[in-house]
Amino acid sequence: MTTATTDFTTLTGTYTLDPSHSRVGFVARHAMVTKVRGSFNEFEGATTIDGDTPDNSTVALTIQVASIDTRNAQRDDHLRANDFLDVANHPTITFASTAIKHLGGSDFEVTGDLTVRGVTKQVTLPLEFTGSATDPFGNQRIGFEGSLVINRKDYGVSWNAALETGGVLVGEKVTLEFEISAIKNA
């Protein structure tokens, strides 16, 4: 049974992200005419929900950069290289919440420290609580989804190539997308 309740008291506890039912993705402009979508296939994280005071909840996420997948091996190798994410020196991207604000209903703002390529910046991620359910194995699950736009140059990801027709090969803005399913710890 799936519930889109806003009574969070029943959800109090610590939850582990379920990577096989979650997605951490991104979208970036390519050649000024289209968008390239990709995801990170390996990540882990947890959230602790304080159902009585949702603002006291926490979130932490660690992404394995080498798991980047844009469905193009050559592009993925370039994104792993020093021109972009420099996986040899910065194997993970991390996020740790510093504040969570319940805006009412199913809407939250999660503020925290996002570290990409060794550079940490504070970001605020709007998240929507998409519901809770007990799966066929008896696990209590919760879901959230949201996205935010960052400027990759703020994190030292500045490689680009000029196009003959004007503009550049890779846009500066990157949309980070989160579709999260998490299982309550025993």
Automatic annotation (TrEMBL):
InterPro entries: Lipid/polyisoprenoid-bd_YceI, TTHA0802/YceI-like_sf. Gene3D superfamilies: Lipid/polyisoprenoid-binding, YceI-like (2.40.128.110). Signal peptide: none annotated. It comes from the Bacteria. SMART domains: YceI (SM00867). Residues 14-183 form the Lipid/polyisoprenoid-binding YceI-like domain. PANTHER family: PROTEIN YCEI (PTHR34406). Belongs to the UPF0312 family. This is YceI family protein.
